[in-house]
């Protein structure tokens, strides 16, 4: 006998699962509707469980990479690296928005004063500096994508068969320490919106780890080597620097409005 309980869709009365009609209002019960609702709840629970498993596995992977950044972690989800880079991009954009706010205000005040004098001579300008958080986030994520793409292409030139997501996991696993450093920088920047000696030291250390990790991601795999690694690493850095410079110049042309 089915002792499960359900509710009448008409009056909300609690009834036993074996009833075909509501004992309160007499409305006919629709088991299929109840089944659909239960199935919907199951789907939601499965989604929540998957999200919990993903987050717990990600943090376990993150801790392992902090302890042994030079070691590959087996059975890694293909999107763990992308998650790290996304978090890093958000933190970087947040830090940049804090530090750039005083500079933006100073520049815009200067432009405003210029406008007041230029207007007297029949000239004016309205290309004020605009550095919103979204703009900085797009810039940060784009630079990260360029770095990952440059490393991936370098590995493929060397003869490696690594996929883009696998290389992103590889690079993120080596450089996850920079995420921790950026969190510390963010905490200090929330205390003081102007860079101080501690913040500058942390930025330098973060830059060092990022570049060392990038180089190590290019030389870790010794299989399928077609070109000398000194040349591939050098070419990769040169190309990345050129593309980053060009992208930064293009970015600066759109921050004026």
UniProtKB/TrEMBL annotation:
InterPro entries: DUF6574 (IPR046481), Zinc_ribbon_dom (IPR026870). Residues 7-29 form the Zinc-ribbon domain. The chain crosses the membrane at residues 79-104, 128-150, 171-191, 197-219, 231-256. Pfam families: DUF6574, Zn_Ribbon_1. Keywords: Membrane, Transmembrane, Transmembrane helix. This is Zinc ribbon domain-containing protein. The lineage of its organism: Bacteria, Bacillati, Bacillota, Bacilli, Lactobacillales.
